Amino acid sequence: MFDKYLIVDDSLRATADGFAFDARLGYYRGLGLSMVEDLVVTIDDEPVAREAIRFDETGGGAPLTLDEMETNYDRQWNFGAVATISVIASEPLAPGAHSLTLSEKLRVSYLPFPAMNSDAKTLEVAA
């Protein structure tokens, strides 16, 4: 239902150690970070290793690895809140258009199965 809103338009950017983009939660309520079972990212049809992904819903707080999110019970990703997903890579992204996908696997208390949400966009990295 909210899949087309997961990746924030025009948010893809190169960083000194890879790239980052902004994302929203694909669920109509907030979730504790320990309930985000997985975030899967691909860039230009290349999957990103789980260990290279960092998540920060605080806008300047301490980014967490996905493994650290599993046991974080104090932080929450609220509906509509924009989080930063960073990827550590050997090189920054080159300027230009890149295809980006994000899949969220969420543990929702009243569902007997994980909720899966995905978005795919082509975004530009400024020169």
Automatic annotation (TrEMBL):
InterPro entries: CGDB (IPR045959). Residues 2-110 form the C-glycoside deglycosidase beta subunit domain. Pfam families: CGDB. Keywords: Carbohydrate metabolism, Lyase. It comes from the Bacteria. Belongs to the C-glycoside deglycosidase beta subunit family. This is C-deglycosylation enzyme beta subunit. It comes from Sphingomonas glacialis.
